Amino acid sequence: MMRKLIVAFAVATSFVGATALQAQTATTATREVYVKAQPTDVLSSNLIGLNVQNNAKETVGEIKDLVVSNGTLSGLILSVGGFLGIGERHVVVTPSAVNVVYSENDKKWSATMDTTKDALKAAPEFKYEGRWSK
């Protein structure tokens, strides 16, 4: 009888502990789940497909993808050196190297980078393979 009482008490205690933990987690998650997009924020749909120009107004690449590391944007994957998809290769650049702006007058996004086509062609190549296969 004593053994059944101890087991029943242990089971009841674990349910109470689990319920309290779930309640705490649910409360914490609710506060952290929703954010408000700010007028200065950029959406991934604004970036993907955006041509990148250098300071001489030459198109040096196109933003093809984003690299997210631990919840933070850590890289932009650029398609460089191709024509109509032939001969293109991909490189990853730090987001801070690309200046993305929105023109209220033109209602358009633009991206510039202080680089050359040759510098991007010589950069380490990123390949869509393994876990990043498309």
Task: Characterise the protein shown here.
A hairpin with a 5-residue loop joins strand 1 (51-53) and strand 2. This protein is an alpha+beta fold. Residues 1-20 have low confidence and may be disordered. The protein has a six-stranded mixed sheet with strand order 4-3-2-1-6-5. The chain folds into two domains: 1-34; 44-129, PRC-barrel domain (SH3 type barrels). It has helices spanning 2-33, 44-47, 117-122; strands at 51-53, 59-69, 72-80, 89-93, 98-103, 108-113. Helix content is 31%, strand content 30%. Residues 42-119 form the PRC-barrel domain.
Mean pLDDT: 82
- Work out the count of structural domains: 2
What's the alpha carbon Rg, rounded to whole Å?
A: 25 Å
Count of alpha and pi helical runs: 3
Largest sheet: 6 strands, mixed
* CATH architect. name of the largest domain: Roll
CATH homologous superfamily (4th level) name of the largest domain: PRC-barrel domain
Total strands: 6
Counting copies of identical and different chains, the oligomeric state is single chain
State the name of the first-level CATH class of the largest domain. Answer: Mainly Beta
- What is the fold named in CATH at topology level of the largest domain? SH3 type barrels
Give the class from helix and strand content and strand pairing.
alpha+beta
* Order of the strands making up the biggest sheet: 4-3-2-1-6-5
Element-by-element helix/strand order? HHEEEEEEH
Chart the SSEs and their pairings:
Layout: H1 2-33, H2 44-47, E1 51-53, E2 59-69, E3 72-80, E4 89-93, E5 98-103, E6 108-113, H3 117-122
Parallel strand pairs: 1-6
Antiparallel strand pairs: 1-2, 2-3, 3-4, 5-6
Signal peptide: 1-23
Protein name: PRC-barrel domain-containing protein
Keywords: Signal
